[in-house]
Amino acid sequence: MTTTAPPAHPRPVPEHSPGAARGPRRPGRIRRIGLPYLLLLPALLLELLVHLVPMVIGITMSFKELTQFYIRQWGTAPWSGTDNYRLAVDFHGAVGEALLHSFLVTVVFTLLSVSLCWLIGTAAAISMQDSFRGRGLLRTVFLVPYALPVYAAVITWAFMFQHDNGLVNHVLHDQLHLTDKPSFWLIGDNSFYALLTVSVWKGWPFAFLIVMAGLQNIPRELYEAAALDGAGMWQQIRRITLPSLRPVNQVLVLVLFLWTFNDFNTPYVLFGKSAPAAADLISIHIYQSSFVTWNFGTGSAMSVLLLLFLLAVTGAYLLLTSRGRRTADV
Predict the structure, then answer these.
(1) How far is residue 122 from each of residues 96, 114, 142, 196, measured CA to CA in Å?
(2) Cβ-contact 183, 169 below 8 angstroms
(3) Which residues, 6 or more positions from 327, have their beta carbon under 8 angstroms from its beta carbon?
(4) Alpha-carbon torsion (67, 72, 77, 81), positive or negative
């Protein structure tokens, strides 16, 4: 008599085992994947309305002969093609020569301001690295220029730079006797130094804050080992601090460069609608070309050229820094 064994039931395969067959995606998983994009949607819409749409309108305006006669209906302004761009880059003409002068002043001003902000901020952050009594209060005092509103700070400096009753002339001329007579700081060649002073004063606390945060990631054991090997303070800064801060400094320098090169509030509040030739930054120059002379087409073309320049500099800087990081890793 032959008996037939009952059919064996296959062992259930765990759901997450390698042999498990992948079924269709669950709706919950799809919702989880799409949730981040849904949360980013309001920010993307605001970015579109606040930045991209005005940028497209500005680029369109740069190809039009938009003057004060077409302000109410700028869409009806005649199409000028690339005439505004040719006028802006014609350095033998009055418009191009003034734009080139403003560009060179802005480059020199930006390099000096960024260098001094980074140097003062880094030195202050390194000096605040060790614990001592009153360090928290001193850190707070250092951050006051960065916390103050820009208009309040610059207006205060404008009063301090006054010729007759300003604090700067009172200290330099009346107290220290460093000048033969009170200087004019808001007109003439001294306006460049006044603008640079205000820019560095309100910019270095940001560098101090970023570098101080970067210093927290450097292990104290490195300094202790270097001190045991006989390394002094300057050798520790050169061999440990600065190389460890390289990623932080790369971002910091780029941000300071973009902020300083595009700075409009400081010269506008300090000098008004028309800055002196020595302090004619390109931001205030474009404003004057657009809203003072009422030539919005030329001003828009200058803005587009400035945008292209900053994009080129930013791209080259990121390329060089990324290549430097790869070389250092190798």
Answers:
(1) 38, 12, 12, 18
(2) yes
(3) none
(4) positive
How many angstroms separate the CA atoms of 265 and 307, rounded? 18
The encoded tokens of residue 65 equal 């002969």
Q: What is the mean pLDDT of the chain?
A: 86
Phi, psi of 230 (to 5 degrees): 95, 10
pLDDT tens figures, 301-319? 999 999 999 999 999 999 9
Is residue 134 exposed (0-12), middle (13-18) or buried (19+ Cβ within 10 Å)? exposed
pTM over 0.85: no
The model's pLDDT over 240-275, given as tens digits with 9 standing for 90+, comes to 888 999 999 999 999 999 999 999 999 999 998 888
Note the pLDDT tens digit of each residue in 212-231: 999 988 888 888 888 888 88
Q: Looking at the chain, list the stretches that DSSP marks H as alpha helix, in order from N- to C-terminal side.
A: 27-47, 53-61, 83-88, 94-127, 135-142, 144-147, 150-160, 167-169, 190-215, 220-228, 233-236, 242-244, 246-261, 265-271, 282-287, 296-329
Distances (CA, A) of 218 to 129, 222, 236: 11, 8, 12
Contact 209/123 with Cβ under 8 angstroms? no
Cβ-based neighbour number of residue 237 at 10 Å: 17
Residue 277 near residue 104, CB atoms below 8 Å: no
> Mapping DSSP to helix (H, G, I), strand (E, B) and coil, where does residue 3 land?
coil
Residue with token string 């005439």: 83
Q: Please give the average per-residue pLDDT across 100-110, as a whole number.
A: 96
DSSP notation for 149-198: -HHHHHHHHHHHT-TTT-HHHIIIIIIS--SSS---SSSSTHHHHHHHHH
Cβ atoms within 10 A of the Cβ of 92, count?
6
